[in-house]
Write a structure and sequence with these properties.
Bound molecules: 4-(N,N-dimethylamino)cinnamoyl-COA
Number of strands: 10
Strand order of the largest sheet: 1-2-3-5-7-10
CATH class of the largest domain: Alpha Beta
Mean pLDDT: 97
Radius of gyration: 19 Å
Strand content: 15-25%
CATH superfamily of the largest domain: 2-enoyl-CoA Hydratase, Chain A, domain 1
Length: 261
């Protein structure tokens, strides 16, 4: 099935082997409503099954990547509502995506918006980006992985600072601490992110998937378990035609042409 382009809450575009998803609820700074996440997951499902697409970029507007969960939608929920229906569960789909994902973050990335960005493989920020986990100001705390991913990315001291005060962090501080892969200037921001995505999309997809899998396993395993897993994946990469092509292209002094096989 081809990627649809008639969603209500997101805009989709295909550029060569890259799928660009733009969160599109500008009137509420891309607050993450149930319907937006449904649209996002529908698009992710299609992209994951489309062998012509290799990389996914998720972005927002210049004012906001996403200002968090939709507070107006959340306010009426009770404890038992959350027990019976974990409305955040579907947000996690992006973290299980089998293709490389890039969050191209501009403006506010707050609460669930920051957590969604942290679920992506690369987090590329515009120089104007402001990250934050301000849930404490609403009488709650981050619960879409923020209390787990943020300390792993920036360390306990800074994560405590961010989550207990609810303060915002600019892109420079975020990059210095390792939350952000790169900062790019405002001018031509999304084009530059797409250049990175296009570059990645020219590599062997199965090799990218193995690399991503190995890195993600470092979150779950001890070092020695992780190294065993890495070694197994590496051996598997020797069964790829792309592995032969990559090494042969080096010897031939030409650019490799990968076929994702
Ligand atoms: N939800 C709904 N509407 C929002 C919103 C949000 N998160 N953020 C902004 N808006 C709306 C505003 O209400 C306003 O709408 P109108 O009043 O015009 O109708 C419009 O967007 C423009 O916002 P502002 O007028 O406030 O714009 P400013 O430039 O003055 O301020 C701001 C921008 C980003 C500083 C401010 O909008 C702001 O503080 N927004 C809220 C940020 C926030 O608190 N984010 C955290 C949300 S809580 C869970 C797991 C995770 C979560 C929940 C449950 N479980 C496991 C169950 C996640 C929770 C969160 O993310």
């Amino acid at each position: 099935m081809n990627l649809k382009n008639n969603y209500k809450n997101i805009i989709t575009k295909v550029i060569s082997k890259v799928a660009l998803i733009t969160l599109n609820r500008p009137e509420v700074l891309n607050a993450l409503s149930k319907d937006l996440i449904t649209d996002l997951n529908d698009a992710l499902n299609i992209i994951e099954h489309d062998e012509n697409l290799s990389v996914i970029v998720i972005t927002g507007s210049s004012k906001a990547f996403a200002a968090g969960a939709d507070i107006k939608e959340m306010i009426s929920k009770s404890f038992i509502d959350l027990v019976n229906n974990d409305f955040i569960k579907p947000w996690e789909q992006i973290s299980f995506c089998n293709k490389p994902t890039i969050a191209a973050v501009d403006g506010y990335a707050l609460g669930g918006g920051c957590e969604l960005a942290m679920m992506c493989d690369l987090l590329i920020a515009n120089e104007n980006t402001k990250f934050g986990q301000p849930e404490i100001n609403l009488g709650v705390f981050p619960a879409a992985g923020g209390t787990q991913r943020l300390p792993k990315a920036i360390g306990k001291a800074k994560a405590m600072d961010m989550i207990l005060t609810g303060r915002m962090m600019d892109a420079i501080e975020a990059e210095k601490l390792g939350l952000v892969s790169r900062i790019l200037p405002s001018e031509g921001f999304i084009e530059k992110v797409l250049d990175i995505a296009l570059d990645i999309s020219e590599k062997s997809l199965p090799a990218l998937q193995m690399a991503k899998d190995a890195i993600n396993s470092s979150y779950e395993n001890t070092l020695s378990q992780g190294i065993v897993y890495e070694r197994r994946l590496f051996r598997s990469s020797f069964s790829l035609e792309d592995r032969k092509e990559g090494m042969k292209a080096f010897i031939d002094k030409r650019k490799a042409v990968f076929k994702n096989s």
